[in-house]
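Re: the 357-residue chain
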Amino acid sequence: MHELTREQARRIVVRATMLDAQRPTDLMTVVERLAALPVEPSRAVAPSYDLVAWSRLGAAYEPADLDELLAARELYEDADGIRPMADLSLHLADMATWPPWDDTREWLEANELFRTEVLDVLDADGPLPSRAVHATAQVPWRSSGWNADRNVRTMLSCLLARGEVAVNGRTGTQRKYDLAERVYPASVEAMPADQARTERNERRLRGLGLARASGTALPGEPIHVGDAGEPALVEGTDGEWRVDPAQLGRPFGGRIALLSPFDPVCRDRVRMQDLFEFEYVLEMYKPAAKRRWGYFALSILYGDRLVGKLDATADRKAGRLFVDAVHQDVPFPKAMTRAVDAEITALAAWLGLALDR
C-alpha cells in the first residue's frame, strides 16, 4: 500500500496526463497515452478533442493533424472517444454484446426494418451526416431528454456502439456515418472480453496516473480502473486509490495549461475535488443568470494546482476571442498572472483570433 501526500498525488496526475513541463511532441503519442480524446464537440472555445490536444502540444498542434490521422485510419472515433486504431480489438467484444440495457435492446428488436433501412442508405450513399439519413422507425424512441423523437440519430448512435456503423469524417463538428466495414480493418479480431477489460483498465490508468477502482459511471471514456496498478492511500481523502507504479518517485516540473471541462484531469469532478481541492461545475446547461464561472469555463492549471477558471468565448465571425473573466480560486501572484495572460494570448493565437479582454 503506497501512502501519498496530496501534492504527490496531484503531480502523478499531471505527469500521467502529459501536462507537466516535458511536453509530448506528436499527437499520436498523446492519444496513445490518454487512451482516448473526448468527442464532446461544443465550440464555445474549441471542440474538446482539439483543446485536449492543444493543452499538451501547444502551438505545434493543428486540428488538421487529427483529421489526417483519422483519414489514415490510425485513429478511429466511437461513441465514447477518439482512439488509436490499434486499440479496436480491445472494444470489439463489448460492441458485439451491446446494449446492456433491456429497453434499448427491445427498441432495436422492434425496429429491425428501420435498422436495415439505415444500413441500406449508408451502403448506397455513405458517409453521411445524420440529417441526410432518411429512414422511418416502426417504434419511435421515447425519451424525456435530448433524444426524444430523434429516431435516426438514436439508431445511428446504437449502431455505432454495436460496431455496425463507424464515423467516417466530419463536416465541422458534425459526424459522417458509414458502414463499419469501410472504416475498420477487416483483419482485426476481438480480444476476449475479460482480457480486453483488464488491458483497457491498465492503459486507462497509465493515462490517469491515479484513479478509483470503481464508482459512478460517466458518459464517454470511463474514469475508473478496476484492479489495475497498485493500491494507494492519499492524505486527506477517504478510501483506496489505484496508482500507476511507473509514476512513483519521478521528478516533477510544472507549467501553465488551460483545460477543457472534458479534459482527463477535469472529467472526474470527484477526483478533482479530492486531489486538487478545486470546485467546478460545467454551467453550459444553466441559465446565464445562475452561472458563477461562465458557459464553458476552462480550468487553469499552474504547476500541480488548479488555481482558477477562464470564462472565454470564441466568436469566429467577429474574429475575436472574448475573455469575460479570469476567476481566481487563489490570489494570483505576479508570476502566475503573467503566465496565465501569456497562455490566454497563446490560445487566441492558436485559434487565429484577436484577443478581446
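The longest helix spans residues 334-351.
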